[in-house]
Specification:
The chain is an alpha/beta fold and about 280 residues long. It contains six helices and 13 strands. The chain binds flavin-adenine dinucleotide.
């Protein structure tokens, strides 16, 4: 049995640069220019899961992302980790996409990049963190999907998968092709070797634009995004200092008045007028 496996990966801002990230007050989107990206951490677990299936059953692992052109570096890293091919969907037409438009473009990219028996994603991204893309993508592809997968096994063309719930888990039998969104505890992603980096240079990385995909343009990017961001503002972090003076009991009395003035219910804390329990 030889499987075609596709893994969706998302480049996310490098946490070392979080303090440099700003939000465009007009477009209400994150300004990412100049912010280096890393691979969304759980997406490396998804790639590891794919590589393990390939090693056991044979086949091919393709990694795909919809992202700006510099995501090529992230894809090369995954080719070095062991993926066979990479696909980068990049075009101004994809900019400003919400999860619906993202999953729509990704689905078109998956269909374009070849047949798939198994699709992996992470459970959520480190930046947007909606967890909506896996289910939406599976719906566009019209295949079954499971989220928060902590274990799975491939048998013939059936998946036995364990999905984590708040208070336990559910075992599923799923017919392939199917999509699994895996959680971080499913495995430990392998390290990249020097040999892997050398091999990655010769592996195919295909760049596709909107014109290469079988898509309806009005479903892409900002115009294809029904999500509308409301008001965005930076909360004021300014603090005001106030000095209380006098004898201890006077200070306590003043403090109680200040706290009451700020709306604190001192009775619920069991504090009486003298400020003692
Ligand atoms: C109005 C609006 C405008 C936006 N504009 C932009 C913008 O200009 N640029 C921008 O980067 N973001 C933009 N976003 C954010 C963007 O919608 C989300 O980052 C994106 O849809 C993925 O959602 P998420 O991060 O919640 O992923 P989740 O659903 O939490 O991700 C789960 C998994 O899905 C997969 N996945 C998610 N995204 C991708 C991807 N792009 N490629 C491959 N696999 C993926 C990964 O495996 C990931 O682990 C915008 C959002 C809104 C609402």
């Amino acid at each position: 049995m030889s499987l075609n496996i596709t893994v969706c990966i998302k480049p996310v801002p490098d946490p070392d640069y979080y303090d440099k990230i700003t939000i465009d007050p007009v477009k209400k989107t994150i300004t990412r220019a100049g912010i280096p990206t890393i691979i969304n951490p759980v997406d490396k677990n998804a790639v590891e899961a794919a590589l393990q299936v390939k090693e056991k059953l044979g086949g091919k692992v393709v990694v795909i992302t919809m992202a700006p052109p510099n995501a090529e570096e992230n894809l090369r890293e995954l080719l070095a980790m062991g993926a066979d091919e990479a696909v980068l969907l990049t075009d101004r037409a994809f900019a400003g996409a919400d999860t619906l438009a993202t999953s729509y473009a990704l689905a078109a990219g998956l269909k374009k990049s070849g047949p798939f028996d198994l699709v992996f994603t992470g459970t959520e991204s480190a930046d947007g963190a909606t967890s909506q893309v896996p289910a939406q993508l599976a719906e566009w592809l019209d295949i079954p999907h499971l989220w928060n997968v902590q274990e799975f096994e491939v048998e013939d063309h059936t998946l036995k998968a364990k999905m984590s719930m708040e208070n336990g888990y559910i075992n599923y039998l799923v017919q392939m092709p199917a999509l699994l969104a895996v959680k971080r505890s499913i495995n430990k992603p392998r390290y990249t070797t020097v040999m892997g980096v050398m091999k990655a240079k010769k592996k195919p990385l295909t760049v596709l634009t909107a014109a290469d995909l079988d898509v309806e343009p009005e479903r892409l990017g900002l115009q294809g995004s029904p999500t509308k961001a409301g008001d965005i503002f930076t909360p004021s972090l300014a603090r005001k200092g106030q000095q209380l003076t006098g004898e201890t009991e006077e200070i306590v009395e003043q403090l109680i008045q200040v706290l009451r003035g700020a709306g604190l219910n001192l009775e619920s804390l069991n504090v009486n007028e003298a400020g003692r329990e």
